[in-house]
């Protein structure tokens, strides 16, 4: 059994959360930033509802981790197809332009801790964000000049990890400014997984409609008008 396919030890998420205070504080601040941004964005919601739909922007950076031996979990060129699909979906369905935050794809120089290589989602992502994995991800999460303090135009950082429980990726929505994506997802025939997880970061939730982007197992790409409004009102999506 390869490292990529091996099951994750559920005991891992029951370890004491040594970094919980800082992690919980960061989650609370992110929720506050999201709430304030959405309140200030109410006029934009009204405009979009009546047909005023100018292009907005979302900034993305992909960060590739290294395993215990220092081997990158993916190569930068493997990200290209998923990036292109995400850009096409967001532009077509929500009038949102994907803007690469330079450098758009980076490989971290040193091996990542095991807690960040093999992560969970619904079965432990919140606990992990409050502990070692979350501390590690926040260290390398991308920021713009103003986003760290105000939340405005906060980039979404996509961390390429080894495993994500039994699924392809994970997002904690407004609690964090990053998502995790299993490295294997760049080598399968469903490249819209990155767009799906970034959608979660913008507060989009799962649907049972297989034609829509937020259907858990694809290959749908459609974003409804309501989903577009929610996405465009996120702190990650702005005019500048």
Write the layout of secondary structure elements.
Elements: H1 20-40, H2 42-49, E1 56-66, H3 80-94, E2 96-111, H4 114-117, E3 118-119, H5 125-129, H6 132-140, H7 147-150, E4 156-161, E5 163-164, E6 169-171, E7 178-182, H8 193-201, H9 225-232, E8 237-238
Parallel strand pairs: 1-2, 1-4, 3-5, 4-7
Antiparallel strand pairs: 1-8, 6-7
Could you explain the architecture of this structure?
- The protein has helices at 20-40, 42-49, 80-94, 114-117, 125-129, 132-140, 147-150, 193-201, 225-232; strands spanning 56-66, 96-111, 118-119, 156-161, 163-164, 169-171, 178-182, 237-238.
- By secondary structure, it is of the alpha/beta class.
- It has one domain (17-238): Collagenase (Catalytic Domain) (3-Layer(aba) Sandwich).
- The strands form two sheets. Strands 1, 2, 4, 6, 7 and 8 form a six-stranded mixed β-sheet that branches. A two-stranded parallel sheet has the order 3-5.
- α2 runs antiparallel to α9 (225-232) and α3 (80-94) crosses α8.
- It is globular, with a radius of gyration of 17 Å.
- CA gyration radius, whole angstroms: 17 Å
Strand content: 15-25%
In terms of quaternary structure, what is this?
A: single chain
Return the string of H and E elements. HHEHEHEHHHEEEEHHE
Q: Write the CATH fold name.
A: Collagenase (Catalytic Domain)
Major pleated sheet: 6 strands, mixed
Form type: globular
Ranges with pLDDT <50 over ≥5 residues? Answer: 10-14
CATH class: Alpha Beta
Whole-number mean pLDDT:
90
DSSP E strands, number: 8
The separation of the N and C termini measures 47 Å
- For the record, the count of structural domains works out to 1
CATH-defined architecture:
3-Layer(aba) Sandwich
Structural class based on helices, strands and sheet pairing: alpha/beta
């Amino acid at each position: 059994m390869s490292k990529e396919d091996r099951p994750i030890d559920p005991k891992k998420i029951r370890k004491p959360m040594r970094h919980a205070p800082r992690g919980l504080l960061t989650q609370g601040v992110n929720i506050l930033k999201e709430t304030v941004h959405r309140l200030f964005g109410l006029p934009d919601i009204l405009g979009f509802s009546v047909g005023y739909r100018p292009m907005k922007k979302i900034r993305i950076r992909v960060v590739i981790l290294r395993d215990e031996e220092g081997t990158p979990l993916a190569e930068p060129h493997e990200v290209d197809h998923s990036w292109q699909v995400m850009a096409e979906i967001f532009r077509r369905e929500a009038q949102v332009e994907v803007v690469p935050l330079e450098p758009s794809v980076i490989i971290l120089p040193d091996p990542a801790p095991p807690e960040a290589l093999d992560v969970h989602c619904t079965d432990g992502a919140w606990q992990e964000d409050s502990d070692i994995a979350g501390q590690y991800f926040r260290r390398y999460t991308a920021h713009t000049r103003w986003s760290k303090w105000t939340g405005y135009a906060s980039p979404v950082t996509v961390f390429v990890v080894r495993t994500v429980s039994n699924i392809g990726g994970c997002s904690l929505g407004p609690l964090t400014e990053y998502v995790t994506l299993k490295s294997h997802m760049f080598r399968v025939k469903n490249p819209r997984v990155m767009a799906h997880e970034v959608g979660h970061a913008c507060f989009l939730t799962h649907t049972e409609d297989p034609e829509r982007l937020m259907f858990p197992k694809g290959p749908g790409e459609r974003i409804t008008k309501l989903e577009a409004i929610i996405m465009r009102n996120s702190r990650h999506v702005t005019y500048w």
